[in-house]
Amino acid sequence: MDQPLLVDPHTEIREEVKKLCARFPGEYWRKLDEQRAYPTEFVRALTEGGYLGALIPEEYGGAGLTLSAAAAILETVQAEGCNGAACHAQMYIMGTILRHGSETQKRTYLPKIASGELRLQAFGVTEPTSGTDTTSLRTFAKKEGDHYVVNGQKVWTSRAEHSDLMLLLARTTPKDQVAKRTEGLSTFIVDMRASLGKGLTIRPIRSMMNHNSTEVFFDNMIVPAENLVGVEGRGFRYILDGMNAERLLIAAECIGDAKWFIEKATAYARDRVVFGRPIGQNQGIQFPIARAYAQMRAAELMVQSGLAKFEAGQTPGEEANMAKMLAADASWAAAEACIQTHGGFGFAEEYDVERKYREARLYQVAPISTNLILSYIAEHVLGMPRSY
Ligand SMILES: Cc1cc2nc3c(=O)[nH]c(=O)nc-3n(C[C@H](O)[C@H](O)[C@H](O)COP(=O)(O)OP(=O)(O)OC[C@H]3O[C@@H](n4cnc5c(N)ncnc54)[C@H](O)[C@@H]3O)c2cc1C
Known about the structure:
The chain has three domains: about 100 residues, Acyl-CoA dehydrogenase/oxidase, N-terminal domain (Butyryl-Coa Dehydrogenase, subunit A, domain 1, Orthogonal Bundle), CATH 1.10.540.10; about 110 residues, Butyryl-CoA Dehydrogenase, subunit A, domain 2 (Beta Barrel), CATH 2.40.110; about 140 residues, Up-down Bundle (Butyryl-CoA Dehydrogenase, subunit A, domain 3), CATH 1.20.140. It has 13 helices and ten strands. The strands form three sheets. A four-stranded mixed sheet has the order 1-4-5-8. The protein is globular, with a radius of gyration of 21 Å. The structure holds flavin-adenine dinucleotide (FAD). The site of flavin-adenine dinucleotide has 23 residues, from strand 1 and helix 13.
């Protein structure tokens, strides 16, 4: 499928990732889906290829690539029918350490994250009671001498069982003692290997797709003070700083999903013969696929626009949010068209359509739901009053 740029600077990366993905066909993902198992071999292959360390600067052992290169990697993974959700966070969670961590933290963690020796792909933000209202989260880290004592709970902490470290957002000053609700939250690097069974409990959540998500409980868990990232109380700002990059990368994944669905639907529409002619000859079959393609291409331009702004050192809040929403909508439209085109076979596991369909639905809700993006646009772009 065409790329939107006249000259795509990442054709080589796309080709290489495509070759890697060819080693992990639908059958591989189907089996994992059935067992809700983790794609260890796939993640190992991406790690060894250096792809998950794409955004880590060379001086810390990474590939030092641009955000658009990382987006090309994740888009290709999805377009080839694989699932980057198993490890995409290894690419971007480290950004908080890179931007706000001490030099010691950077030297300690980044080279090992780049090599895959350490996995930092668990991100503990969402809590059961606060949900999207992040600043109301209740997990509390109390400073006691040279360490913090953490109590609370997270939910939907993906990949916690397949990660060595977690980036945790917790309150360090009660909400009623700060001038602004965004203050008094702090970010920590939690060594889950050291804490498991010592104040840290992880419980898997079985969900509609194979996402390895969990709930995590903290019961007097000790975190050394040296694991605080940046300045105490400024953690919410640090998390926000990383959100544009995360949203653009997720949007790129949605573009990849849309491409997969469109390719699959088109091929089936050409081949499947009913009433003595290919079903793709009917406009009722063609139009939803064509519309999804147009939606995908438009969303792709928004992703490119956000990436360009990011790489020019500007803040692409508007573009990153819109790209995430439009790309998730495009992938969902393509998923709908694809399953409908396949008729009954769309529901059969061996076609992979139903699995991808379940996986694609997530991005209407996570990492940020469509309503909250619309709310961002209404308030921050269009200047309407804050609604919540
Ligand atoms: C599979 C999966 C993996 C995830 N992985 C992670 C992870 O690794 N780490 C992590 O921290 N979180 C993770 N999440 C959590 C995810 O980010 C949240 O589910 C998401 O942000 C929505 O929060 P919530 O589920 O609490 O919904 P709620 O906040 O309860 O919202 C429910 C619905 O109400 C809407 N809503 C809420 N407030 C408003 C408003 N003011 N105006 C209009 N509509 C509103 C929302 O849009 C949503 O549709 C994951 C979630 C899932 C399902």
